[in-house]
Amino acid sequence: MSGFVPVDRDTLYLLPPSVQDWLPQDHLARFVVDTVEQLDLRTLEVRFAGRGKAAYSPAVMLALLFYGYATGEFSSRRIERATYDSIAFRFIGANTHPDHDTIANFRKSFLREITGLFVQILQVAQSLKLLKVGSVSLDGTKMKANASKHRALSYGHARRLEAQLKTEVEQLLKLAAQADRQALPSGLDIPAELVRREVRLEAIARAKAEIEARARERFEAEQRVFEEKAAARTERQARTGRKPGGKPPVAPTSEPKPTDQVNLTDDESRIMKSADGFAQAYNAQALVDVDSKLIVGNFVTQQTNDFGQIEPALAVLQSLPAALGAPQFLLADTGYYSERNVNLCEDAGVTPLIARKRESHHLGVLERFAPPPQLPDCADALKRLHHRLATPEGKALYARRKTSVEPVFGVLKHAMRFRQFLLRGLEGARGEWNILSMAFNLKRMHVLAQAG
After folding, report:
1. With 90 as the cut, is the pLDDT of residue 432 above it?
2. In the chain, where the domains are located
3. Which of 4, 39, 120, 411 could form a disulfide bond with 415, CB atoms 3.0-4.6 angstroms apart?
């Protein structure tokens, strides 16, 4: 007699199986389905109604996307395959199998409607007593675009390539005119070669136009800064009666630089410096509640640095329903530091904790526990910030930035394995970053609910 567990793949079920028996009661897939069922999907249901035949329920499509992103399955083809191979995906789909085209089209076509569900999920978290917005950490990460940096075309190279192609077109036309008098090179198809060059010239013209438009936008921003610096320099000279030291500001130019470039695959993405070197990417920002570590706001920008992201971050926080709680402190690293950003926070009623510089490691014990300097009565916003960061309470609160927003990026990139956007264009990246943020929140809410 064998001591092994019997293996029988042929006996039929005595009773029809139920999808409710497939997963443990505390499984993440159940939590995702239960949460999606609490959302108001009427806008999606109206727009997603089938034409000619019944459509899949938006609740099912959303749950498949959320669970897929939460578990590292982002491809529509892999999600379709998982509805056959994975018990969790079979449970979510109720043993139905939307094909990959349906999943991809749903994700791409309803980004705006899906974006509106972000706050609803936060409200579910609040109803479960998992969220009360208080202190918020802000940080950004460079997320690769669905485009290779090697498909980027610089303005200087575009001009050289344009001149070369125009010369080749002239040569081909001359060969065509001489075709009756002399033999053409073997294999040369002049009409096909002309069409190929015309297509490339059109692409180059579009790329040059985009680079020139960006140069004009940059000029307008740089011109404002130049005029402010020049006016301040003139005012200082009039006040002191002496010529200011240093070099005078240089007037910007609206002409594109030879190194200005555009990507031919995703022209809205930018070359950005990341931890892995330079990449074709977007700058993805997240606002994370310090206590719950839930993402309470997200947005994507084309700007390569974080310097200008305080204002849109405050706009995101101010758009949250008052019932979720009012943010009291905003924690951010040195990339966000400026006098303007500090004033923006205070004007919005949020107390900033933005580091002025990187703190040295291994400070001496007397330096670490030195009392903060006295705050003068007429202190401005910057002095109040520096004093706040020097107090024990301020240091303790700012230290929580590293234990809130940075671990979130670690989970997104390593545990959930999201390293690159699938959708192209700025709006596509924003929509997908929002889906990923909601998937993270569902995963985090499930953990918090189990722990509570």
Report:
1. yes
2. 19-109, 131-148+268-451, 152-263
3. 411
